[in-house]
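For practice. Supply one:
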Amino acid sequence: MIHRGARNVEPATIEECDNTCNGSELELESLELILPDRGTTDKMAEMFKALGDPTRVRLIYALSRKELCVHDLSTILDMGQSAVSHQLRYLRNLRIVKRRKEGKTVYYSLNDAHVEQIFLQTHEHISHE
């Protein structure tokens, strides 16, 4: 086993590459140029990490249907308000949800249509299994 950073990687068992695998050197260089930078890929990974928690998925699903306050979310999810607030803070820090204050009540909703589309397409994808 080869150790690379924090991961252990099995040695390749597929035939060795002889520089003619799937593209010319020029094609590979152009692909390398369009890859997102590390900052972008880190942010994308954080987004998917947020979607990796069932509680947050349920929160996002509820908010994709309607703007809700912490009390309503805690009732729907059968969770304490502090636990819901903690998850909402996490999602807000990632700009997945936003809040709007009306008097003393804070309402939460999805930050934008992109977040909703990512969620809905993911839901549609797994529904086809």
